[in-house]
Amino acid sequence: MVRDLRCSELAASLDGADPLALVDVREGWELDICTIEGAIHIPLGELADRTGELDLEKPVALLCHHGVRSRHAAMLLEDRGFKDVFNVAGGIDVWALEIDPDMTRYD
């Protein structure tokens, strides 16, 4: 079952010694607006073909705009045998509100 990760928890992990892998499943045009440094960009439509780029043993957090696409991505990774998979609740929109208020938001 996919577990949700709050943006504050993601921020703490990214600042830690052994951060989880952050995979941004948004489209390229969305990354042109805003992104989280260090995120791996794999659009949702390409994820099924590109799971080999991720470490099966490393915890993975999936991020999108509001958390819907990333939940689907997390379920896909779980189906592929990934064990520690998290959906970033609220997506990059909540990240901008709670963590990085200078980040550009979009609809």
Question: How would the blueprint of this fold be written?
Answer:
Elements: E1 3-5, H1 7-15, E2 21-24, H2 28-31, E3 40-41, H3 44-50, E4 60-63, H4 68-79, E5 85-88, H5 91-98
Parallel strand pairs: 1-5, 2-3, 2-4, 4-5
The main sheet comes to: 5 strands, parallel
Helix content: 25-40%
Strand tally is 5
CATH class: Alpha Beta
Report Rg.
13 Å
Beta strand %: 15-25%
Average pLDDT, all residues = 97
Number of discrete domains: 1
Which tags fit this structure?
Oxidized Rhodanese, domain 1, 5-stranded parallel beta sheet, 37% helix, 5 strands, 107 residues
Can you put this structure into words, describing what you see?
The chain has 107 residues and is of the alpha/beta class. It contains five helices and five strands, in the order E-H-E-H-E-H-E-H-E-H. It has helices spanning 7-15, 28-31, 44-50, 68-79, 91-98, and strands at residues 3-5, 21-24, 40-41, 60-63, 85-88. A five-stranded parallel beta sheet has the order 1-5-4-2-3. Helix 2 (28-31) links the parallel strand 2 and strand 3. The longest helix is centred in the last third of the chain and has 12 residues, at 68-79.
Provide a concise account of the structure shown.
Helices cover 37% and strands 16% of the residues. The protein is an alpha/beta fold.
